[in-house]
Amino acid sequence: MESKHHDPGGKRRMRLPDGVKGDAEYFGARRQYRLWLSREWGQPTDPYALWIGMNPSTADAYANDPTVAREMKFTNDALSFKRYFKVNILDYRATKPRDLALLEEPARSERNLPVIIKLAANAARIIVCHGDLHRSFQTFATETVRCLESEGHELWCLGRTLRNAAPRHPLYVKSNSPLVRF
After folding, report:
1. Residue 41 lies in a domain
2. Disulfide-capable partner of 24 in 35, 37, 97, 126 (CB 3.0 to 4.6 Å)?
3. Which domain holds residue 164?
4. Rounded to an integer, what distance in angstroms lies between the CA atom of residue 103 and that of residue 134?
5. Is residue 5 part of a domain?
6. What are the two backbone dihedrals, phi and then psi, of residue 147, each rounded to the nearest 5 degrees?
7. Could you give the 3-state DSSP secondary structure of residue 32?
8. Whole-model pTM?
9. φ and ψ at 119, to 5 degrees?
10. What 3-state class would DSSP assign to 72?
């Protein structure tokens, strides 16, 4: 029997640390799109960091994946924030980015960019961290950055990739890497 829900692949899921509340918004006939994910280990009114990655993987309202765990650590240790939101350039859930180019449905839904803009409006810090994108998706990253900059947001990153100066992915930097202007 086929599952009603989309399987993004991957096997690495970690339970949320004690005291952390999680939430997420999905849509699609099989919940194949994730618009945002959040973690809170302070108060609901505390400032939050908004991390903008490439695409959602296995993390959900109840479990972390390695990327979300690392971003939470940066948020807590480097920024001293107790709230975290995660959005992505592409909102289709997959653990292998190369699979996104083979989809029969859009890798980025029409609902995605408006959600990013809305969450950015109240973010205390916005960190771009999508890494090197497949060339067919680069326009989505450019559009996202331009929209956020046109709204007056300062964008930060964990450094740039050597290949095309994309913002580095948090799993591929040292845990004490400083945030720099994007």
Report:
1. yes
2. 37
3. 14-181
4. 13
5. no
6. -60, -45
7. coil
8. 0.92
9. -70, -30
10. helix
Number of domains making up the chain: 1
Q: Name the helix (H) or strand (E) containing 179.
A: none
Average pLDDT, the chain: 92
| Adjacent-strand bridge partners of 71 | none
User: Is 87 among the domain residues?
Assistant: yes
d(CA 142, CA 3): 35
CA dist., res. 69 & res. 59, Å (int): 9
Strand pairing category for 14-15 and 63-64: antiparallel
* Structural tokens at position 89: 């350039």
The answer to the question of residue 9 being in a domain is no
pLDDT confidence of residue 99: 79
Please tell me what DSSP assigns to residue 167: B
**Single-letter residue type at 4:** K
- CA-to-CA distance for 95 and 98, rounded, in angstroms? 9
The string of pLDDT tens digits covering residues 140-166 is 999 999 999 999 999 999 999 998 899
